[in-house]
Amino acid sequence: MFKIRYTLVMFAVLLLLTGCSPKDDFDDYDHAELRPSENVAAVTEFEEYDGNIESITVFITNDSDKRFPLNGNFRLQKKVNDEWKAIKRYYDPESLISDGTNREMLEHSEGAVCIDLKEHVKLPLLPGQYRIWVGSISGNRTVAAEFEVK
């Protein structure tokens, strides 16, 4: 009788442990491929971040002959088995209201955009290699900056 109880208790403990491990919050419906804009580069403020990072500043260099859109829109991806997978975004209806201002970087200029992660993705981010796309996601005027979460 003791062996049966012991086995059941161990099974329950193992079941709880495997069910409680954190998992990435991937967006299984986001399969859109983004291409970086020509002659535009981006880097994050730091190469490595803690998983509880609430916002990320992305510095952009626009060496093209076109203006580059700067807005709060972004796409976050994580590298898994040499493939980039989108992290699910959550939208606050208030954040979708535009103030009507078009923000753009001039040709051959530098700028920065601060992305508020805490309002849009599940934190903490789990360790791994990430990239964040900024610019006009729907208009194919984008650029990605890579970083690592330790």
Search tags:
single chain, 150 residues, mainly beta, five-stranded mixed β-sheet, three-stranded antiparallel β-sheet, 1 helix, 10 strands, elongated
Structural commentary:
The chain is mainly beta and 150 residues long. Helix content is 12%, strand content 37%. The chain has 1 helix and 10 strands. The protein has one helix spanning 2-19; strands at residues 40-44, 48-49, 55-62, 68-69, 74-80, 83-86, 104-105, 109-116, 128-136, 141-149. The strands form 3 sheets. Strands 2-10-9-5-6 form a 5-stranded mixed beta sheet, with no helix packed on it. A hairpin with a 2-residue loop joins strand 5 and strand 6. The longest helix has 18 residues, at 2-19. The termini are far apart. The mean pLDDT is 85.
Number of strands: 10
Low-confidence sequence ranges? none
What separation lies between the terminal Cα atoms? 46 Å
Mean pLDDT: 85
- Strand proportion, as a percent range, falls in 35-45%
Q: What overall form do the CA principal axes indicate? A: elongated
Tell me the structural class: mainly beta
Strand order within the widest beta sheet? 2-10-9-5-6
| Major β-sheet annotation | 5 strands, mixed
Oligomer classification: single chain
Order of helices and strands: HEEEEEEEEEE
* Helix-residue proportion: 10-25%
Radius of gyration: 20 Å
Tally of separate helices: 1
